[in-house]
Amino acid sequence: MNRNTSTMTVKELLKSRYFRFGLVALLYTLWVIWLDNYWFLLGLIVIFDMHITRKVNWTFWKKRDVKSYKKSTEWIDALIFAVIAATLIRMFFIEAYTIPTSSMEKSLLVGDYLFVSKVSYGPKLPNTPLSFPFAHHTMPLTSKTPSYLEWIKNPYKRIAGFGDVKRNDVVVFNFPAGDTVIWKMQDQDYYSIVRNYADDLKMRDVKQGSKLKSFNRYKAEARKYIWDNFDMTVRPPDKRENYIKRCVAIPGDSLVIKHGQVFINGKEQKHFEKMQYNYFVKTDGGKINSRHLDKMNIAMADRNFSPARSLYQMPLTQENVERIKQLPNVISVTRYENTNPSLASHYIFPFTPDFDWTEDNFGPLWIAKKGATVKLTTQNLPIYERIIDVYEGHDLEVRDDKIFIDGNVSNKYTFNMDYYFMMGDNRHSSADSRFWGFVPEDHIVGKAVFIWLSLDKDKRFPGKIRWNRLFRSIH
After folding, report:
1. How far apart are CA 139 and CA 382, in angstroms?
2. Which residues, 6 or more positions from 204, have their beta carbon under 8 angstroms from its beta carbon?
3. Which residues contact 203 (CB under 8 A, 6 or more apart)?
């Protein structure tokens, strides 16, 4: 009898509106403390009314005190709960992500579906909270209708997480150069398009024998032409494209790349097992048997063969290099290296011939750190000008070889944020920091933690499922 009475008491407690109010209020208060915004404590009034006083009908789509609801009402309840719960989970805890390009192969493959942890580095609160659920920057079934409204614009804020970005973490972030987008060319970097068109204008003047202008003048002409002839949009940081790369250098590090090998603070970066470079594979005239390449998991799109030269150009891991060398019709295997900085100056950061850097020979470059002060000169300004002007929002200008920040002559600058240097593991097929510079801390989204599904686009179902990659952690 006592046992039954005790059981009934527990059931009654769980059904008690005061118990439910206390539990929800506790969880809500902990969430407010995590947000570090105590204005949200006013929400306790709503929670109290929903559970105790019930003066306001917060579920306005159904009548109160009706015991039998229509199926449609139950579906509305379930849908609203699901949307709110999924939105909160996606915003504060974990988000799904798909690998669309080969920039991280073979560590991550095209067709990998990942979960990205927001709590690893602390969730970043939305800059644009008025947004259509589950749409990143464009409304579903449209080509250029924004999925967000900028009526409310919040400054950058990141709440507490489990740690900071570490070297060699695989990180998802908002594309820093994705602030300006040409609608018809969304898959291309706007600033690269401007520089390429400016280079075309310069080459035109060279061919015509016209007087050459400064490259900044050509860029200004290119920029005006693009804005006059294409539909454009400007996106806030949280609505820029999501990229995934490996963080190779953290704030305060010094980075150098020599012959494709990364050095951080003078120490050689460890060679990741699945990291790739582009190689030239010379054969005795014929193609390599496709079954050999299938066993090496070399995608069809990567098997670039020139019959006239009996030459493949393929991205290969070190393991695959050794395996290809053993094939009977392979004569030589040579790694590609760009040794011509004169051709790289308009597409390699910081986009000036004053730095003879290429994707394979780059730096030394110091990674900007919050609170650190750097001496500014007109020589090193190209490295930090986007940080000062765009990411940290100052008015930057150079007049008569003098640097002006917010109207004042300056020869130094103190950084307000931390910055990172990201690179893809597919070193010759990755648009990364070598091509657009630093990643600011306010663009960091989260850490890639594990693969939950992987599909091979070159195969048919069910063979396209890569069973050996399911539920694998990411390193």
Report:
1. 36
2. 210
3. none
- List the beta strands (DSSP E) in 260-391: 261-264, 267-268, 276-283, 304-306, 311-317, 330-335, 362-366, 373-375
Cβ neighbours for 3, distance < 8 A, ≥ 6 positions apart: none
Q: What is the pLDDT of residue 300?
A: 86
Mean per-residue pLDDT, 345-358: 90
How many Å apart are CA 453 and CA 32, to the nearest integer?
34
Best CA proximity match to 217, nearest among 231, 199, 204: 199
State if pTM tops 0.85: yes
Say if CB 448 and CB 96 are below 8 A apart: no
Query: Among 72, 73, 50, 55, which Cα is nearest to 63's?
Result: 73
Phi, psi torsion values for 367, nearest 5 degrees: -90, 120
Query: Is 310 strand, coil or helix?
Result: coil
Phi-psi region of 296 (alpha: psi -120 to 50; beta: other; left: phi over 0): alpha
Q: Tell me the per-residue pLDDT of 431-449, one tens digit each, with 9 for 90 and over.
A: 999 999 999 999 999 999 9
* CA–CA gap between residue 451 and residue 52 (Å, rounded): 44
